[in-house]
């Protein structure tokens, strides 16, 4: 078995079955208050795209969940039909609607019987569409893989779409937004769906690598000049490549470290802030992979690397935008602390009454990759998508739907509840402000 899956740190704020903390930071809690649970139920209820039974304002008619689900699926069926339209504008609008639908809801059952039709349409858009259509189609490819999961269905879709995604990625004549979108889609699809024989993994890594090495130093040690838009493409390819590196065995990681670390070190001198940041995060991730293999691992030119990181962590050049300087300093302080002390600032991602903890660069890259694809829908998928819950070590979805359906809370009741909660929070904050004023 060549592939390995890194599980995320998880935490349930509902009564937990886990014991004490371990290396992955899984910690149990005594439970959650009734008020917190009620707030979560209402929040979950209002976040399901009004699919649960509610009383429609102004009509008094009850729209049950099944009806709402059927209406949503009818709209998606029309979008799928529109993917075959002759009008590029119609196809693009359909792709954008699918993008929104796939990112905001879990649709496995609906997509299972339509996956071949959708894959055919996406392949056609990637081959014959313009740059904007190709870019959107590539994103929908990634979302389709996330919806279908890592089973046979996802693998079939990936094997069908990988060649065209790779072809656009390495085509220097293709539009830059399309190539950038294909870079992210190739990384995500491969991470989710790559088969155990590792052929797809190695091919995808090779294609991504062939793109971002365009920013590597030339024979004389200087960095090449690149035209506008290329650094963003190289950043996307590098980040997807780093994501796939987390699946590689120890032997491959050692080769990667020896070949890429010195060149990535040089790329820290790039004039593009976002590419520098992507490089810095990738260096930290590779160091973490190296330390996972060998606790004594240390980059051979570590002192020079730390000097470069210190310069970037304290960069005050006025010719750079203030926000760019602030973002760069923050990221490179974290990278420097990790390289020097293996110190990582833990991040908590809350969704519903659960949470995951990001406590390493590998975990951050994997979470960021899903967030880039799912955007604002990432928390919904963390709650309900079996694929993400497996990757993040969350177990089966918590069952809150039964209590939500039984309550049949109307929009008016939900509004009154939220108003009361807002007033309670306001009173509490006023008390805190009064105490601060007394201290002052």
From TrEMBL:
Region (Disordered): 8-31
Domain Interferon-related developmental regulator C-terminal: 385-437
Database matches in Pfam families: IFRD, IFRD_C
Residues forming coiled coils: none
Signal sequence segment: none
Domain Interferon-related developmental regulator N-terminal: 42-340
UniProt similarity note: Belongs to the IFRD family.
Name of the protein in question: Interferon-related developmental regulator 2-like
Species: Sinocyclocheilus anshuiensis
Taxonomic classification: Eukaryota, Metazoa, Chordata, Craniata, Vertebrata
């Amino acid at each position: 078995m060549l592939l390995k899956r890194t599980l995320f740190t998880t935490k349930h704020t509902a009564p937990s079955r886990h014991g004490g903390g371990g290396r992955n930071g899984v910690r149990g809690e005594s439970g959650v208050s009734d008020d917190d649970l009620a707030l979560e139920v209402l929040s979950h209820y209002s976040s399901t795209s009004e699919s649960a039974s509610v009383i429609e304002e102004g009509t008094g008619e009850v729209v049950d969940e099944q009806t709402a689900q059927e209406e949503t699926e009818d709209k998606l069926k029309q979008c799928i039909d529109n993917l075959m339209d002759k009008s590029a504008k119609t196809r693009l609008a359909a792709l954008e609607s699918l993008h929104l639908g796939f990112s905001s809801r879990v649709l496995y059952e609906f997509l299972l019987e339509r996956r071949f039709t959708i894959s055919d349409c996406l392949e056609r858009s990637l081959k014959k569409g313009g740059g904007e259509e190709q870019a959107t189609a590539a994103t929908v490819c990634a979302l389709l893989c996330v919806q279908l999961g890592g089973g046979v269905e996802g693998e079939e879709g990936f094997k069908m779409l990988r060649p065209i995604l790779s072809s656009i990625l390495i085509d220097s004549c293709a539009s830059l937004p399309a190539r950038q979108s294909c870079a992210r889609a190739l990384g995500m699809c491969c991470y989710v769906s790559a088969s155990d024989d590792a052929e797809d993994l190695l091919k995808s890594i090779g294609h991504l690598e062939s793109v971002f090495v365009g920013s590597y130093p030339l024979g004389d040690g200087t960095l090449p000049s690149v035209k506008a838009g290329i650094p963003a493409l190289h950043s996307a390819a590098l980040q997807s490549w780093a994501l796939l590196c987390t699946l590689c065995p120890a032997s491959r990681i050692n080769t990667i470290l020896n070949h890429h670390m010195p060149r990535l070190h040089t790329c820290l001198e790039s004039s593009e802030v976002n590419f520098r940041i992507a490089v810095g995060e990738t260096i930290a991730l590779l160091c973490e992979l190296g330390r996972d293999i060998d606790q004594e691992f240390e980059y051979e030119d570590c002192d020079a690397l730390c000097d470069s990181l210190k310069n970037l962590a304290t960069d005050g050049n006025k010719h750079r935008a203030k926000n760019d300087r602030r973002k760069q300093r923050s990221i490179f302080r974290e990278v420097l602390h990790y390289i020097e002390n293996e110190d990582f600032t833990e991040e908590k991602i809350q969704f519903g009454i659960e949470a995951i903890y990001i406590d390493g660069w590998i975990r951050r890259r994997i979470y960021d990759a899903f967030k880039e694809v799912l955007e604002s829908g990432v928390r919904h998928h963390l709650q309900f998508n079996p694929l993400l819950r497996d990757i993040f070590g969350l177990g089966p979805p918590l069952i809150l739907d039964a209590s939500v359906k039984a309550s049949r809370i109307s929009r008016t009741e939900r509004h009154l509840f939220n108003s009361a909660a807002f007033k309670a929070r306001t009173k509490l904050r006023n008390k805190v402000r009064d105490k601060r004023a007394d201290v002052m």
